[in-house]
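Support request from a user on the community tier.

User writes: "When I paste my C-alpha coordinates into the form, the page sometimes reloads and wipes my input. The last time it worked, I copied everything first. Here is what I submitted, just in case something in the input itself triggers the reload:"
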Protein backbone atom coordinates (compact mmCIF):
# COMPACT_ATOMS: atom_id res chain seq x y z
CA UNK A 1 0.00 0.00 0.00
CA UNK A 2 1.30 3.42 -0.95
CA UNK A 3 1.36 5.85 2.03
CA UNK A 4 1.05 9.09 0.06
CA UNK A 5 -1.40 11.93 -0.24
CA UNK A 6 -1.97 14.51 -2.95
CA UNK A 7 -2.40 18.11 -1.82
CA UNK A 8 -3.61 21.27 -3.43
CA UNK A 9 -1.15 23.97 -2.41
CA UNK A 10 -2.43 27.55 -1.93
CA UNK A 11 0.79 28.71 -0.16
CA UNK A 12 4.43 27.90 -0.77
CA UNK A 13 7.69 29.73 -0.17
CA UNK A 14 11.31 29.98 -1.26
CA UNK A 15 14.04 28.73 1.08
CA UNK A 16 17.71 29.57 1.22
CA UNK A 17 18.40 25.92 0.39
CA UNK A 18 16.62 26.48 -2.94
CA UNK A 19 19.20 29.17 -3.71
CA UNK A 20 21.99 26.75 -2.79
CA UNK A 21 20.48 24.24 -5.24
CA UNK A 22 20.43 26.80 -8.04
CA UNK A 23 24.03 27.68 -7.17
CA UNK A 24 25.10 24.09 -7.69
CA UNK A 25 25.73 23.33 -4.03
CA UNK A 26 23.42 20.28 -4.01
CA UNK A 27 24.47 18.17 -7.02
CA UNK A 28 22.00 15.37 -6.19
CA UNK A 29 19.18 17.56 -7.56
CA UNK A 30 18.49 16.50 -11.15
CA UNK A 31 17.81 19.04 -13.92
CA UNK A 32 14.11 19.72 -14.29
CA UNK A 33 13.28 18.95 -10.67
CA UNK A 34 10.37 20.93 -9.21
CA UNK A 35 11.88 22.69 -6.20
CA UNK A 36 10.35 23.56 -2.87
CA UNK A 37 9.87 21.92 0.52
CA UNK A 38 7.77 24.51 2.39
CA UNK A 39 4.02 24.61 1.83
CA UNK A 40 0.55 24.58 3.30
CA UNK A 41 -2.14 22.70 1.42
CA UNK A 42 -5.44 20.88 1.40
CA UNK A 43 -5.58 17.13 0.97
CA UNK A 44 -7.39 16.18 -2.23
CA UNK A 45 -6.56 12.47 -2.47
CA UNK A 46 -4.98 9.83 -0.22
CA UNK A 47 -3.23 6.58 -1.00
CA UNK A 48 -4.36 3.23 0.36
CA UNK A 49 -1.62 3.26 3.00
CA UNK A 50 -2.76 6.52 4.64
CA UNK A 51 -4.99 6.22 7.69
CA UNK A 52 -4.85 9.62 9.40
CA UNK A 53 -5.83 12.00 6.62
CA UNK A 54 -8.98 12.59 4.61
CA UNK A 55 -9.67 14.86 1.64
CA UNK A 56 -10.36 18.37 2.85
CA UNK A 57 -7.85 18.31 5.70
CA UNK A 58 -5.69 21.46 5.86
CA UNK A 59 -2.09 20.49 6.53
CA UNK A 60 1.46 21.80 6.61
CA UNK A 61 3.75 19.71 4.45
CA UNK A 62 6.92 18.99 6.40
CA UNK A 63 10.25 19.46 4.65
CA UNK A 64 11.18 16.00 5.97
CA UNK A 65 9.42 12.78 4.97
CA UNK A 66 9.51 9.86 7.41
CA UNK A 67 8.72 6.19 6.94
CA UNK A 68 8.36 5.74 10.70
CA UNK A 69 9.77 2.22 10.91
CA UNK A 70 13.48 2.30 10.01
CA UNK A 71 16.18 2.51 12.67
CA UNK A 72 16.54 6.28 12.39
CA UNK A 73 12.82 7.04 12.34
CA UNK A 74 12.34 4.92 15.48
CA UNK A 75 14.86 7.27 17.15
CA UNK A 76 13.02 10.37 15.83
CA UNK A 77 15.96 11.07 13.49
CA UNK A 78 13.57 11.41 10.58
CA UNK A 79 16.02 13.38 8.46
CA UNK A 80 18.13 10.22 8.14
CA UNK A 81 15.23 7.93 7.13
CA UNK A 82 16.53 4.82 5.31
CA UNK A 83 13.33 3.84 3.48
CA UNK A 84 12.99 6.64 0.97
CA UNK A 85 12.30 9.51 3.34
CA UNK A 86 14.46 12.27 4.78
CA UNK A 87 14.83 15.48 2.83
CA UNK A 88 13.46 14.40 -0.53
CA UNK A 89 10.90 17.08 -1.48
CA UNK A 90 12.44 19.42 -4.04
CA UNK A 91 15.64 17.39 -3.74
CA UNK A 92 15.21 13.78 -4.84
CA UNK A 93 11.53 13.99 -5.84
CA UNK A 94 9.42 16.87 -7.15
CA UNK A 95 8.70 19.46 -4.50
CA UNK A 96 5.92 21.81 -3.50
CA UNK A 97 6.49 24.95 -5.59
CA UNK A 98 3.55 23.86 -7.72
CA UNK A 99 -0.24 23.84 -7.73
CA UNK A 100 -0.35 20.23 -6.52
CA UNK A 101 2.19 17.95 -4.86
CA UNK A 102 2.42 14.26 -3.99
CA UNK A 103 3.58 13.87 -0.40
CA UNK A 104 5.22 10.53 0.51
CA UNK A 105 4.61 8.93 3.93
CA UNK A 106 1.77 11.38 4.41
CA UNK A 107 0.64 10.26 7.88
CA UNK A 108 4.02 11.14 9.41
CA UNK A 109 5.06 13.92 7.01
CA UNK A 110 2.11 16.27 7.32
CA UNK A 111 0.52 18.03 10.29
CA UNK A 112 -3.13 18.97 10.52
CA UNK A 113 -3.69 22.64 11.20
CA UNK A 114 -6.22 24.16 13.60
CA UNK A 115 -8.28 27.07 12.36
CA UNK A 116 -6.46 29.36 14.80
CA UNK A 117 -3.25 29.16 12.73
CA UNK A 118 -3.23 30.99 9.42
CA UNK A 119 -1.74 29.57 6.23
CA UNK A 120 0.92 32.29 6.28
CA UNK A 121 2.08 31.40 9.78
CA UNK A 122 1.86 27.66 9.16
CA UNK A 123 4.34 27.82 6.26
CA UNK A 124 7.01 28.68 8.85
CA UNK A 125 6.46 25.25 10.43
CA UNK A 126 7.45 23.41 7.26
CA UNK A 127 11.16 24.09 7.67
CA UNK A 128 12.58 27.26 9.20
CA UNK A 129 11.14 27.02 12.72
CA UNK A 130 12.02 23.35 13.36
CA UNK A 131 15.38 23.72 11.60
CA UNK A 132 16.43 26.73 13.64
CA UNK A 133 15.10 25.27 16.87
CA UNK A 134 16.53 21.75 16.52
CA UNK A 135 19.79 22.28 14.61
CA UNK A 136 20.54 25.68 16.10
CA UNK A 137 19.05 26.18 19.56
CA UNK A 138 18.75 22.60 20.82
CA UNK A 139 22.00 21.33 19.28
CA UNK A 140 23.71 24.44 20.67
CA UNK A 141 22.23 23.72 24.09
CA UNK A 142 21.17 27.30 24.72
CA UNK A 143 20.62 27.80 28.45
CA UNK A 144 19.34 30.61 30.68
CA UNK A 145 21.90 33.37 30.99
CA UNK A 146 23.88 32.38 27.90
CA UNK A 147 25.26 34.85 25.41
CA UNK A 148 24.21 33.68 21.95
CA UNK A 149 25.59 34.94 18.65
CA UNK A 150 23.64 34.23 15.46
CA UNK A 151 25.75 34.67 12.33
CA UNK A 152 23.41 35.28 9.40
CA UNK A 153 19.92 36.58 10.15
CA UNK A 154 17.93 35.58 7.15
CA UNK A 155 14.75 33.60 7.94
CA UNK A 156 16.68 30.73 9.58
CA UNK A 157 18.74 33.09 11.73
CA UNK A 158 15.68 35.09 12.73
CA UNK A 159 13.85 31.92 13.71
CA UNK A 160 16.92 30.93 15.74
CA UNK A 161 16.71 34.24 17.62
CA UNK A 162 12.99 33.77 18.18
CA UNK A 163 13.33 30.23 19.56
CA UNK A 164 16.52 30.94 21.52
CA UNK A 165 14.54 33.51 23.50
CA UNK A 166 12.45 30.65 24.88
CA UNK A 167 15.50 29.76 27.02
CA UNK A 168 16.10 33.25 28.46
CA UNK A 169 19.63 34.01 27.22
CA UNK A 170 21.18 37.11 28.71
CA UNK A 171 22.27 38.49 25.32
CA UNK A 172 21.60 37.70 21.67
CA UNK A 173 24.01 39.21 19.14
CA UNK A 174 22.96 39.19 15.48
CA UNK A 175 25.51 39.42 12.67
CA UNK A 176 24.63 40.08 9.04
CA UNK A 177 25.71 42.20 6.07
CA UNK A 178 22.24 43.57 5.30
CA UNK A 179 20.91 46.53 7.31
CA UNK A 180 17.30 45.41 6.75
CA UNK A 181 18.01 42.01 8.29
CA UNK A 182 19.76 43.54 11.28
CA UNK A 183 16.68 45.71 11.86
CA UNK A 184 14.53 42.60 11.63
CA UNK A 185 16.81 40.86 14.13
CA UNK A 186 16.01 43.58 16.67
CA UNK A 187 12.30 42.97 16.12
CA UNK A 188 12.77 39.26 16.76
CA UNK A 189 14.71 39.75 19.98
CA UNK A 190 18.39 40.51 19.33
CA UNK A 191 19.70 43.19 21.67
CA UNK A 192 23.03 43.73 19.86
CA UNK A 193 23.49 43.80 16.07
CA UNK A 194 26.63 44.11 13.97
CA UNK A 195 28.00 43.62 10.51
CA UNK A 196 30.66 40.92 10.05
CA UNK A 197 33.37 43.48 9.27
CA UNK A 198 32.89 45.03 12.73
CA UNK A 199 34.83 43.72 15.71
CA UNK A 200 32.16 41.22 16.68
CA UNK A 201 34.52 39.40 19.03
CA UNK A 202 34.95 42.54 21.13
CA UNK A 203 31.17 42.97 21.25
CA UNK A 204 30.82 39.41 22.55
CA UNK A 205 33.64 39.81 25.04
CA UNK A 206 32.22 43.09 26.33
CA UNK A 207 29.11 41.32 27.66
CA UNK A 208 30.83 38.10 28.83
CA UNK A 209 33.67 39.36 31.02
CA UNK A 210 36.09 38.87 28.13
CA UNK A 211 35.23 35.21 27.48
CA UNK A 212 33.28 35.18 24.21
CA UNK A 213 29.92 33.66 23.30
CA UNK A 214 28.52 30.58 25.01
CA UNK A 215 26.71 29.53 21.83
CA UNK A 216 27.31 30.58 18.23
CA UNK A 217 24.75 29.59 15.60
CA UNK A 218 25.99 29.59 11.99
CA UNK A 219 23.06 30.28 9.65
CA UNK A 220 24.76 31.31 6.40
CA UNK A 221 26.59 28.35 4.87
CA UNK A 222 29.86 29.96 3.76
CA UNK A 223 33.42 29.19 4.85
CA UNK A 224 33.91 32.79 6.02
CA UNK A 225 30.83 32.60 8.25
CA UNK A 226 31.96 29.32 9.81
CA UNK A 227 35.45 30.64 10.51
CA UNK A 228 33.96 33.76 12.10
CA UNK A 229 31.93 31.52 14.41
CA UNK A 230 35.07 29.71 15.59
CA UNK A 231 36.61 33.02 16.64
CA UNK A 232 33.55 34.15 18.60
CA UNK A 233 32.96 31.10 20.80
CA UNK A 234 34.41 30.98 24.33
CA UNK A 235 36.47 28.08 25.66
CA UNK A 236 34.00 25.33 26.50
CA UNK A 237 31.37 26.88 24.22
CA UNK A 238 29.26 25.41 21.44
CA UNK A 239 29.01 26.10 17.71
CA UNK A 240 25.78 24.91 16.11
CA UNK A 241 26.15 24.83 12.34
CA UNK A 242 22.86 25.18 10.45
CA UNK A 243 24.12 26.51 7.10
CA UNK A 244 24.18 24.47 3.87
CA UNK A 245 27.67 24.17 2.42
CA UNK A 246 28.75 23.71 -1.19
CA UNK A 247 32.44 24.35 -0.53
CA UNK A 248 34.93 23.14 2.10
CA UNK A 249 35.39 25.24 5.20
CA UNK A 250 38.67 25.32 7.10
CA UNK A 251 38.65 23.83 10.58
CA UNK A 252 41.52 25.40 12.47
CA UNK A 253 42.17 22.64 14.96
CA UNK A 254 45.55 24.19 15.70
CA UNK A 255 43.57 26.89 17.52
CA UNK A 256 40.50 24.96 18.62
CA UNK A 257 41.85 21.70 20.03
CA UNK A 258 42.85 23.25 23.35
CA UNK A 259 39.62 25.23 23.86
CA UNK A 260 37.12 22.40 24.50
CA UNK A 261 34.84 23.55 21.68
CA UNK A 262 31.79 21.49 20.70
CA UNK A 263 30.77 21.73 17.03
CA UNK A 264 27.47 20.24 15.89
CA UNK A 265 25.99 19.89 12.43
CA UNK A 266 22.63 18.59 11.38
CA UNK A 267 19.78 18.13 8.98
CA UNK A 268 16.49 18.95 10.65
CA UNK A 269 14.46 15.95 11.85
CA UNK A 270 11.20 17.89 12.52
CA UNK A 271 10.52 15.97 15.74
CA UNK A 272 9.80 19.36 17.34
CA UNK A 273 7.08 20.37 14.86
CA UNK A 274 4.14 19.31 17.10
CA UNK A 275 5.57 21.35 19.99
CA UNK A 276 6.17 24.38 17.78
CA UNK A 277 2.67 24.01 16.36
CA UNK A 278 1.23 24.26 19.88
CA UNK A 279 3.35 27.33 20.70
CA UNK A 280 2.37 29.01 17.46
CA UNK A 281 -1.29 28.31 18.15
CA UNK A 282 -1.13 29.78 21.67
CA UNK A 283 0.78 32.89 20.67
CA UNK A 284 4.07 31.93 22.32
CA UNK A 285 5.80 32.31 18.96
CA UNK A 286 5.06 35.29 16.72
CA UNK A 287 6.21 34.96 13.11
CA UNK A 288 4.06 37.81 11.84
CA UNK A 289 7.01 39.94 10.72
CA UNK A 290 8.72 37.15 8.80
CA UNK A 291 6.91 37.48 5.46
CA UNK A 292 8.01 40.61 3.61
CA UNK A 293 7.11 39.86 -0.01
CA UNK A 294 4.19 38.14 -1.70
CA UNK A 295 3.87 36.88 -5.25
CA UNK A 296 1.50 34.84 -7.37
CA UNK A 297 2.36 31.48 -8.86
CA UNK A 298 3.08 33.17 -12.19
CA UNK A 299 5.90 35.19 -10.61
CA UNK A 300 8.36 32.54 -9.39
CA UNK A 301 11.31 34.03 -11.26
CA UNK A 302 10.76 37.47 -9.73
CA UNK A 303 10.25 35.92 -6.29
CA UNK A 304 13.59 34.13 -6.52
CA UNK A 305 15.35 37.29 -7.68
CA UNK A 306 13.94 39.31 -4.79
CA UNK A 307 14.78 36.64 -2.23
CA UNK A 308 18.33 36.27 -3.54
CA UNK A 309 19.12 39.98 -3.10
CA UNK A 310 18.06 40.88 0.45
CA UNK A 311 20.56 43.73 0.76
CA UNK A 312 18.61 45.70 -1.85
CA UNK A 313 15.10 44.26 -1.54
CA UNK A 314 14.89 43.85 2.23
CA UNK A 315 13.47 40.38 1.68
CA UNK A 316 13.07 38.02 4.61
CA UNK A 317 10.50 35.35 3.74
CA UNK A 318 9.00 35.33 0.25
CA UNK A 319 5.52 33.79 -0.01
CA UNK A 320 3.83 32.59 -3.18
CA UNK A 321 0.06 32.31 -3.29
CA UNK A 322 -1.88 30.43 -5.94
CA UNK A 323 -4.94 32.67 -5.85
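"...and here is what came back when it finally went through:"
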Amino acid sequence: MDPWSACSLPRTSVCGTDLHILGGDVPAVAPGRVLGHEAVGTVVQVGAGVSGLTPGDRVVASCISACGVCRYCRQASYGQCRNGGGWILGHLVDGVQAQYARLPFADLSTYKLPQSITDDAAVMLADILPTSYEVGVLNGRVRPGDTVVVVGVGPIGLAAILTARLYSPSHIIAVDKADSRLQAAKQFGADIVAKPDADVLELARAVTDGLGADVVIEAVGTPAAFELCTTLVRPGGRIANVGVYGKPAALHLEDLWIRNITITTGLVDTYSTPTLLKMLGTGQLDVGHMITHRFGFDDFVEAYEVFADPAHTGALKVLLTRH
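Agent notes: The reload is a front-end session timeout and is unrelated to the input. The mean pLDDT is 96. The radius of gyration is 19 Å. Escalated to web team.
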